[in-house]
Every structure is written in C-alpha cells, then in structure tokens.
Amino acid sequence: MKYVDEFRSNDYSKQLVDNLRAISRSYPQKINIMEVCGTHTMAIFRYGIRDVLPANVTLISGPGCPVCVTPQSYIDTALELSNRKDVIMATFGDMMKVPGRRSSLLKKKAEGADIRIVYSPMDCLTLAAENPSKQIIFLAVGFETTAPMTAVTAIEARKKRLGNLFFFTAHKIVPPVMEVLVKDKDLNLDGFLLPGHVSAIIGTEPYEFLSEDFNIPGVVAGFEPVDILQGLNTLVSLISKKDHRIANDYKRIVRTDGNSQAKDYMNKAFNIVDSNWRGIGKVPKSGLEFNRQFEDFDALKHFEICYEEYDGGSGCRCGEILKGKINPTQCPLFKQLCTPENPIGSCMVSSEGTCAAYFRYYKGP
Ligand code: SF4
C-alpha cells in the first residue's frame, strides 16, 4: 500500500535498529525516554520495538491515553447524569467500560439508560435535532486532538440554534503535564518521544520549554515502525551529543506552528484552566473549559451539578503507571483480577492504555 509500506519496510527498520545500536555503543550511559502518546505505546508493543532496543535505552510509557487520565469522579458524574430520564448520553466507545465507583456506562446501558456510542461529537448535532424532547450530553474527553471537534460542534449547534445539546468537558492539554513529569527526579528522563497526533494540532513550539528550561530534547514521531525507529534514532543521537533541541521527524503531518484553524476553534470556545489528571493530581493550565460565550453548553452548569474531583481506589495502580513510576506487571491485579474483559482501572480499558498494551503484547519474562 503506497505511503504505508515504505514506513513498514523490514529492511529499512533493520538499518535503523543497527544504527540505533551503533549510537548506543558510542554512548553507553543509561537513557530514559518517555513516550507520551498512547498510540505510540500500542505501536511500540505491536511492532516489537522494545525487543530490539539497545540494553541502555529504556522506554517509559506516560500519561498519553485521554480516557486513562480522566479521573474516576468524572465517570461517576457521567453515570449520575445518565440516570436522568430526559437525557441521551453520547460518548466515544472507549469510555463505556471505564469503571466508576459502583458501575460503568456499559452496565448502565444494559440497565436501560440511553447511552449511545458516537464516532464524532458532530454526530450529536443529528441526535439533538432528531430528539427535541431530550437533552443530549456529549462526554467531551481527550487531548488537543479531539478538543477542536468539540469546539466546532458547539459552534455549529449555536448556528443551528440547538438548545438541547450539552457537553461534559474534561479536555486536557499535553505540554503542561510534561512539565510535571520532567520535574520528577525519580523518573530521571533524558528525552521525550513526542505525540504525533497532538503535535499535528499544536505544532512543535509548545514543547520548546523542555529544551530551553530543562535541557531535555524531544522528537515528534509518527506511528509506523519506521517512524518510531527513526524518531528514536534522532532522539538518542541528540541525547548522546547533549543537543537539547526539539526535532520533528513527522513532517508529513506536523508543522512547526500546527494547525491554525483547529487552534482557532479551540481558542474561540475554550478557556485554559487547571485540570485534575488521574494519579497525577491538579496540573496548572492543563485543561479546557467553555468560555463565557459558550458556557450555556456546559452540562455541569445546565444541570446544576456540584462536581467534586477524586480518583479511584480498588487497589488499582493506574496513577503510578500514568506517571511512568511502575509498569503494569508490577500491579498485583494485572492479568489476575484485572483484564480487558473485567477492567479494574482505566489503563486496562482503553485501546491506548498501557495496561491493555502489556496485556495484549507483553510475553515475559
Ligand atoms: Fe489498574 Fe488493572 Fe492496570 Fe493494575 S493492571 S494498574 S488494576 S488497570
């Protein structure tokens, strides 16, 4: 398949692995790299990239899965809203199995709540128009990749004068949480494999603080094996030369200044606010909420919900996993009580979750 096969080439992948090993031989110090994108985590496992890394290079999975970083209190509040007889709740499929304290959206749906899976928030425009006697609530989670679509949907809903569409927003923005991680001395990070999808929206400029303030390099990479291996080559090479720049190895998608139209939509609808990340806590200026012009779309305000944030218990160690402190095999519940069929925590639910990636691909030791 043109434009895909080249990025899955065995020969070129092998050359990149050999080159990575050669760089590592010339710089044998321990190198800790964090990938902050759940799609990277999955792709790294799927293509066996961890198995071919030089011994001194460690990949640490970070908080790159938007469903995983959403606090349990958000799920519980969504469940509470779904109890209302006048509500149709719309959500991405990944949210359905995430456990709240006592239930999940999947169980609520089985009990009769009107919960619909949508592929885009724009689907909610049709839902709202076709169900004028119902209140439609979209569960708006995700990073800078999905936030522009929430903004566009609210803008369109206003144009169409839809008065029955609301959003329960928990959108998050990625660079501020990276600052928290880079300041964490336990992690001792040497570099970041930067998220391709998020960077397609925000560009590379928002990561420059890593280089300027913390002397940490980063490389934006795509999601095919050649993309990831090329990104690791560039990153390990930068680290070995003590060159702290932010590089872009995904130029076919990512521009330095990102996608200006998507950013305009976000700026039009949202304010940047402090936000709670599961396991990490309150991160300054890392969330988005509707601004004054769009606050009538805010489900919490419309339904007068007093929202208190908290994380889950149940022995789940998602918080430490999202911070890169442990890997899933160090959680006693992994593969025992916690499986994708019966997830105890959000990291086992999402297709981008680290525990789900380990469950599917990790073979040993
Ligand atoms: Fe939580 Fe399950 Fe992951 Fe353990 S294996 S951290 S219980 S999601």
Automatic annotation (TrEMBL):
Top-level taxon of origin: Bacteria
Keywords assigned: Iron, Metal-binding
Cross-referenced Pfam families: HypD (PF01924)
Family indicated by similarity: Belongs to the HypD family.
Identification of the protein by name: Hydrogenase formation protein HypD
Organism listed in the record: Desulfosporosinus nitroreducens
